[in-house]
Amino acid sequence: MATLEPPIHHHTGYFPSHDQTSLYYQHWWSDQPTQAVVVIVHGLGAHSDLFQNVVAALVPAGYHLYALDLRGHGRSSGRRGYINQWGEFRGDVGALLALVTQEQPTVPYFLMGHSVGGAIVLDYTLRHPELLQGAIVSNPALGAISISPVKLTIARLLSQIWPTFSLNTGVDNAAGARDPAIVESYNQDPLRHTIGSARLATEFLDTAAWIDEHATDLQVPLLLLQSEADSVTLPQGSERLFDRITIADKTRKTYPESYHEIYDDQDYPTVLQDVRQWLEQHIPQSI
């Protein structure tokens, strides 16, 4: 007789960020004993709806998942693809963690970030490790990216005089997954965008350089997941970061055929099995 998975509960809402920007978030949980909270940060042009495979893999096992739409993304407020400074993203994550710790005050907390969300998570974790049991980053955007160097040069020149100037990033949704049906779902998704402003580009480049410079300061366990067939955030960036990190508790998993959207592409069951196993190994035994 097949074992029935426990039902998944789902809540959505809005919360104010550090500067009162209204941000959308989602929360999934089951009736299983709580193991930990995982807070998910999406990438550029994405949103919090895009982690359904992660939800299905982790929530029935007792994990509470929270995911936000970053400012300028999805259902949240803000100009599409624009920030004044990277600290705004950091503040968004901090505001969600403040909400999470009020709702779930006695459990371990993990951050999970994908693509540009991976850079956001690394930046936050390096600066604010105190609450975190660990961090998971997948295909993190760390400077080795496929966006045209010409566009990045233009962005840096314009950032000071016309920071809101925006261009299409040129990232093709077909680079996300091998299944044409999944790619078409990206193409038809009204909440996705491919807009990046001059200021966002320069803030990203400066943050990637800062993460590289401070990689040796990482204090929390790290799981780094890399699609080796990723043509959006190139594997060299995460490989360099991993080599520079000095903490003993670091793990890098690679998936030779996987495309950029690692939680949607064909290897996702293996990826999520690795995530779940790593989480289980990093939950304090008293929980």
CATH topology descriptor: Rossmann fold
Q: Mind telling me the CATH class?
A: Alpha Beta
Overall residue-averaged pLDDT value: 91
Shape: globular
Q: Summarize the biggest pleated sheet.
A: 8 strands, mixed
Distance between the termini: 30 Å
What's the number of structural domains? 1
CATH superfamily: Alpha/Beta hydrolase fold, catalytic domain
- What is the H/E string? EEEHEHEHEHEHEHEHEH
Detail the poorly predicted runs: none
Structural class by helix and strand composition: alpha/beta
The radius of gyration is 18 Å
Description of the molecule:
- It is a single chain.
- The protein is of the alpha/beta class and 287 residues long.
- It has one domain: 3-Layer(aba) Sandwich (Rossmann fold), CATH 3.40.50.
- The chain has 8 helices and 10 strands.
- The protein has an 8-stranded mixed sheet with strand order 1-2-4-3-5-6-9-10, sandwiched between helices.
- Helix 3 (116-127) links the parallel strand 5 (109-114) and strand 6 (132-138).
- The longest helix has 17 residues, at 87-103.
- The model has no long low-confidence stretch (mean pLDDT 91).
